[in-house]
Specification:
This protein folds into two domains: about 5-95; about 105-295, Tandem AAA-ATPase domain (Rossmann fold, 3-Layer(aba) Sandwich), CATH 3.40.50. Strand 3 and strand 4 form a beta hairpin. About 45% of the residues lie in helices and about 15% in strands. The model has no long low-confidence stretch (mean pLDDT about 90). The two termini are about 30 Å apart. Strands 6-11-10-7-9-8 form a six-stranded parallel β-sheet, sandwiched between helices. A five-stranded mixed β-sheet has the order 3-4-2-1-5. The chain contains twelve helices and eleven strands.
Amino acid sequence: MSKILISINSNDLFVTIDYSKASSKVINSLKILLLNSSENAIPTPIGIQIPWFDLKRILIQVIALIKTDQSTFEFNDFAQSLIKEYLDDWRNLKKDLKNVEIDFDAVNPVLESYGFGRKLTKEQIRDCRNLLELKHGANFSVPGAGKTTTILAVNTIMSARGLLNKIFVICPITAFISWQDEIKEIFGEGKIKIMKLTTNIIQNPFLLNTENPDVILVNYEKLRKDAIKLIPFFLNHKVHIILDESHRIKSGSNNLSYNEIKKLSDISFRRDILSGTPMPQGINDLISQFDILWSEKLFQMWIK
């Protein structure tokens, strides 16, 4: 029986697929699928290396192909962990399972008990409950609707349940003050430690552990390279990644920030996108934004 060995490097999230012990049929099929699906795939003497965020898009196909040949899998521990999380997410999405449920009338009292110093409006409660039910979500409410307050409420409830412990906000630099003010007004002065991510911190990510911030703010331009240096921080914490004004990555892979953000979003515990103008040029602007949330879902939609 042929065997496929799959390992993922936790430093750069590159997947090594070793099919040296596989049948020639599986080898040829995998080569065609992987090389045609990712321009970043690299042939090796024993198989192929491919970025995790590219493999995720076709993982269901890869598994189906290998199972059809009755081949077996072997994984390193890190690969097993990431793939299990992906498959669990995929099954939950297909079955429309609820992530976190809470009664409408319970939202404000629960938030108050957690030190959340602002009452949500009826519309914000609605949005909060809808987002909580999703593993990853999007809020495209009109400007001024309180998207920041709502997503902080979502994070507060999930953090209190041990599901999240860090917030990583990617937004225009002009939005930093707004995020800082909202957090201060809701939680009180000095209750939440906020750090602005600088180039020096990206190059020396151990500083994140030294400072141990609750919330990290970074602008899109700062994440045009070297995001892999932040991977250990994401792997060691339950990070909630939030893209504010997410339409800024509408150009997808043509956007340098998008390519770097994908490396981090794929290993975050929760992903949310916020925008009051999600489609400035048309419906196709949504593709790259939703690709941050549910790339596998989009892939299935587009191949049908």
